[in-house]
Amino acid sequence: MTTLLLATTGGHLRQLDQLAKRLRLDDTRWITNEDEQSRALLAGRSVDFIPYVGPRDVTGVLRCVKSAHRTFGERSVHTAVSTGSGVALGYLPYLAARGVSCHYIESATRVSGPSVTGRLLSTYPAIRVYTQYRHWAGRRWSYAGNIFDDYEVLAKASTRSDRFRVVVSVGIATGYSFRRLIDHLIPILRAGGRLEQRIGLPVEVTWQTAGTPTDDLPIETRETVPSDELGELFASADAVVCHAGTGSAVAALQQGRRPILAPRLPSVGEIQDDHQVQLAEELSSRGLAVARDASAISVDDLIAARDVRVRSRTDVPEFLLRR
């Protein structure tokens, strides 16, 4: 009997990949979109790639229903688990109506309540829904754990090298620019900039900029970086600066880095709502990140990042699905 693991690429996929280790499921098959991240993250695993489903993409959701019908007909599907977003709307109601045990785990990004996807799926009694936060669990929403429970912060013995390495990443979504972050960091991180002046070492920067236009800027950027390469860059960095997306935060934590998280703000058109502000505050309260407005990141923040490490805990309990 097959268990389907369903997620859109980006933070949704990275969360499900991490949670899958705590779900302890056998005979799994992944359903996601094909891009550099998913190819690297799921290499060697059983995967069906489907077209990308964007935010509020009704046509994309309907395509997923057709894919769900085909998958159900080809495989003996017993269980389906999803962390969202649009792929969950296309697959879970269809599969639940055919007797498949269906589970939707709301993103850890949603600190104060469910997403639109979560609210819609919670109206289906046959779909079990889970929050990753105890404070808004209730009769309909169960709590079984949080992906950030996997990590703890350690002080790190200071080491020095011949350069200071920084990774700046704004995630993989191309629909919104985060130019405010890039513009603020250039004077700090450029050759001869404020960080180099303070520490007396050359600063080496990787700029991953997705949909942020940078052609007019005096920096070399990369729109995307493969997941495995980005992990290596995070692991070797002295400081990691990210937008406050779940996928970026988890990627940094998995590599032992405590990121500086800069939330995108809806008030200036960088995102649709304030969930990144909530996530940055949550991780800051756990000590797993430093939350800063994009225009407030300082040289001191970058230097302090060098001397803190994160490690994965070995005592995290299983994420128990309701039956």
Compile the SSE list and pairings.
Blueprint: E1 2-7, H1 11-23, E2 28-33, H2 36-41, E3 47-50, H3 58-74, E4 77-84, H4 86-97, E5 101-105, H5 116-121, E6 127-131, E7 141-143, E8 151-155, E9 164-169, H6 179-189, H7 194-199, E10 203-208, E11 221-222, H8 227-236, E12 239-243, H9 246-254, E13 260-262, H10 275-285, E14 290-291, H11 299-305, E15 308-312
Parallel strand pairs: 1-2, 1-4, 2-3, 4-5, 5-6, 6-7, 9-10, 9-12, 10-11, 12-13, 13-14
Antiparallel strand pairs: 8-15
Describe this structure in words.
The chain is α/β, with parallel strands linked by helices. The protein folds into two domains: 2-145, Glycogen Phosphorylase B (Rossmann fold), CATH 3.40.50; 154-312, Glycogen Phosphorylase B (Rossmann fold, 3-Layer(aba) Sandwich), CATH 3.40.50.2000. The chain has helices spanning 11-23, 36-41, 58-74, 86-97, 116-121, 179-189, 194-199, 227-236, 246-254, 275-285, 299-305; strands at residues 2-7, 28-33, 47-50, 77-84, 101-105, 127-131, 141-143, 151-155, 164-169, 203-208, 221-222, 239-243, 260-262, 290-291, 308-312. It has a seven-stranded parallel beta sheet. The chain has a six-stranded parallel beta sheet with strand order 11-10-9-12-13-14, with helices on both faces. Helix 1 crosses helix 9 (246-254) and helix 3 (58-74) crosses helix 4. The mean pLDDT is 94.
